[in-house]
Amino acid sequence: MKRISDYTIQRLSKYHRSLEILEKRGINTVSSKELAKIEGITPSQIRKDLSFFGSFGKRGVGYNVIELHRKIHSIMGLDQDWNLALIGIGNLGKALIEYHSFVNINFRIRLLVDSNKKKIGTKIGDLTIHPLEKLKSLVKTEKISIAVVTVPSENAQKVINILSEAGIKAVLNFAPTTVIPPDGVFIRSEDTSIQLEALTYYLNSHNV
Amino acid sequence: MKRISDYTIQRLSKYHRSLEILEKRGINTVSSKELAKIEGITPSQIRKDLSFFGSFGKRGVGYNVIELHRKIHSIMGLDQDWNLALIGIGNLGKALIEYHSFVNINFRIRLLVDSNKKKIGTKIGDLTIHPLEKLKSLVKTEKISIAVVTVPSENAQKVINILSEAGIKAVLNFAPTTVIPPDGVFIRSEDTSIQLEALTYYLNSHNV
DNA sequence: AATTGTGAACCTCTTCACAGCT
DNA sequence: AGCTGTGAAGAGGTTCACAATT
User: Which residues of chain A have pLDDT under 70?
Assistant: First the structure.
């Protein structure tokens, strides 16, 4: 199959969420026009995105909400559950553990890791904090496939390299720094300060 | 001036951060090639990004680190401080208040707002939680220009519309839902579940 | 009559390649 | 000799427009 762009993938995830809401409201059918209105994009964009994966609609009618939801669910790899490791148990890490929306039905934090000796061995909920050295074996026993990295910026690259050696192929990075993906590792970053600075750029340039 | 793409703005923010680190290390000069290595992108990308704003380098030499840092600092609107309002004081909101990297030198949370009557009037640090109804007047007195929205998804659009009416032009949205920007309002979103689902998509499709 | 699915056109972003400076 | 700045080429993403289908 032709490589699908990242833009398409992120939009699919949004469609997935919107379809879930429509489904809960008992709506049976949605057209690309209606969904586009919800998403704030064009109908063609939606049709094009879906076309990479098949033909899910009925001409003259639209898409069956339940069917399309299920289809995207499967495309996104959500037919299975995913076990996460959280690396770096500071304020942000703790907030993520408690953050309700984060503990989605498909994602479960199964492993806590920190390098601070004072933290190692202590518990949060029913999870014990482990040292980085144990990562390789714990990744196997806990069947971890995604690591969430909330360590300080200066340690992020090093930690991600270690994760890669331990067999982790996907990382969600919260450290506000550029990290270079090791071979075969997917990294996505959430970087609040970049977002804020993008806003100040626009505010600043808009008032000139 | 020609409209600058969002990609360029986000990269400038990254260059800014890298230059800060180089500056602290006492490095005087950096070439586009060297900076590109740090950022994991091409040298032409960096030169092109900078070219939208002027010519800051010396041919045959490279860029003066301090000078380029200062220039980007100014482009990004960081010559001034920015006052933020935090709307929605749940777990995530509290984490953001405490999150050290968030309290950058240029950004300061000055106003807390929530709609829960039990929370209104209580304090976090030296800030009191105010009701949404007082927003309009408080935005003025506290000189707020950016709102950070950490309310539940179902309230996000409504809250953002109210923020817009109160004169807010820039929003950083953490609610995991699509929001349509009111006229003249810049919105940027951090959406952890989209990032995670992008990762599961890649993990899933990579193993086929 | 309405809406999908899609090739083609269009637009935007990235990379190339080289003239111009230091 | 080395590196920037930039027009042109290339790659990639979005929108158009219309035939196909219900």
Answer: 1, 100-103, 208
Task: Please give the DSSP secondary-structure letter assigned to residue B25.
Answer: T
Rounded to two decimals, what is the model's pTM?
Answer: 0.94
pLDDT in tens, A100-128: 545 578 999 999 999 999 999 999 988 99
CA of A16, C1' of C4: distance in angstroms: 19
Name the residue among B82, B92, B95 with its Cβ closest to that of A200. B82
What 3-state class would DSSP assign to A178?
coil
- Considering only alpha carbons, which residue of chain A is nearest residue B72? A201
**Contact between A203 and B106 using a beta-carbon 8 Å cutoff:** no
Residue B190 has pLDDT above 80, yes or no: yes
Q: Is the CB of A61 under 7 A from strand C?
A: yes
Q: What angle do CA B147, B153, B154 make, to 5 degrees?
A: 110
Average pLDDT over residues B34-51: 98
Q: What is the spatial distance between Cα B160 and Cα A40, in angstroms, rounded to a whole number?
A: 15
In angstroms, the CA B57 to CA A43 distance is 44
Q: What is the CB neighbour count within 10 angstroms for residue A65?
A: 22
Q: How many CB atoms lie within 10 A of CB B40?
A: 11
- Give dist(CA B55, CA B168) in Å, integer: 34
Contact A62, B202 (CB under 8 A): no
- Predicted pLDDT at B103: 52
Pairing of strands A107-113, A82-87: parallel
Q: How far apart are CA B175 and CA B168, in angstroms?
A: 17
Instruction: Outline where A77-191 has alpha helix (H).
Output: 91-98, 135-141, 153-165
CB–CB of A201 and B106 under 8 A? Answer: no
